[in-house]
Design brief:
The complex is a heterodimer of chains A (92) and B (167).
Chain A (H helix, E strand, L loop, with lengths): L2 H29 L2 H19 L16 H5 L19
Helix pairs in contact in A: 1-2
Chain B lengths: L3 H26 L8 E14 L5 E12 L8 E12 L7 E10 L6 E7 L4 E2 L9 E12 L5 E11 L6
Antiparallel strand pairs in B: 1-2, 2-5, 2-6, 3-4, 3-7, 7-8
Classes of the chains: A mainly alpha (92), B alpha+beta (167).
């Protein structure tokens, strides 16, 4: 999954679970059945699992363009040395 | 969210946290229930009333218990435990509570009942104070929820009296 897909997956998971929880609670309360609430919520959890855990194609729309290797060689990483001068030089 | 395991973990944790919240709110809805139970107890017969060899009085009675506890049930009720206690005071103890009968009501339909029964548990005093004793029959109940807080309450039925002499 690319970065955009991961963000979509997380938001989708949160929204789906909260919506199913509210729906399950209200339905169970109105119908007077605790078991019904649990069934609807469990169904919602299973549905959310099927949608966000596998690596579906719509999570991979924004493919990350990494630099070509030849392009990267033209701009080598700067070497960090251990010596840092602490003297302040004032030049007028 | 970069791997299956990561997403599965996030989903499971979040879904269980939400489930815990749902159960807590379901328990809170029990507070909106204002029950109106009724009950009536009659002593049909005093079968035996003797002083045991230990010096304590014992009474065996047949009682008629009828009650309507249907309003105690909510969507979050698993069962109602109900018991009948004889309550009286003696010079030795300011309050005596002797459980005579109990039962478990599993569903709302069974909560309206009328039974005739001998006392399930023995009615034995601590001492010899039961002759001519006035006492209350108190019906206690515990509403056991599917999740959350258990509510307990009682209904006091006064005006019962044991015989003046042994039989």
């Amino acid at each position: 999954m690319d970065w955009q897909g991961q963000k979509i997956a997380e938001q989708l998971m949160q929204i789906m679970l909260v919506v199913f929880a509210i729906g399950a609670f209200l339905t169970g309360y109105i119908m007077g059945s605790f078991q019904l609430m649990l069934f609807i919520y469990a169904g919602g959890v299973v549905l959310t699992t099927l949608i966000i855990i596998p690596n579906w194609p719509f999570f991979n729309r924004n493919h990350q363009k990494w630099l070509e290797p030849s392009e990267a060689e033209k701009y080598p990483k700067p070497q960090v040395t251990g010596l840092i001068s602490k003297k302040k030089t004032h030049k007028k | 969210m970069h791997s299956f395991g990561y997403r599965a973990n996030a989903l499971l944790t979040f879904s269980f946290t939400i489930l815990a919240l749902m159960c807590a709110i379901a328990s809170l809805t029990d507070n909106f229930n204002s029950p109106s139970p009724t009950a009536n107890v009659q002593i049909l017969n005093v079968n035996r009333f003797q002083k045991k060899s230990t010096g304590d009085d014992e009474v065996a009675i047949t009682i008629d218990i009828s009650a309507d506890l249907q309003s105690l049930f909510t969507w979050n009720t698993k069962q109602v435990f109900v018991f009948l206690a004889a309550e009286y005071s003696t010079p030795k103890n300011s309050l005596n509570q002797v459980s005579l009968w109990d039962g478990i009501i599993p569903a709302k339909e069974d909560a309206k009942f009328s039974i005739k029964t001998k006392n399930k548990y023995r009615f034995i005093d601590q001492g010899s104070n039961l002759r001519g004793r006035d006492f209350n029959m108190t019906l206690h109940w515990h509403v056991m929820p599917k999740t959350g807080k258990m509510f307990a309450d009682k209904l006091v039925l006064p005006g019962f009296r044991l015989p003046e002499s042994y039989r």
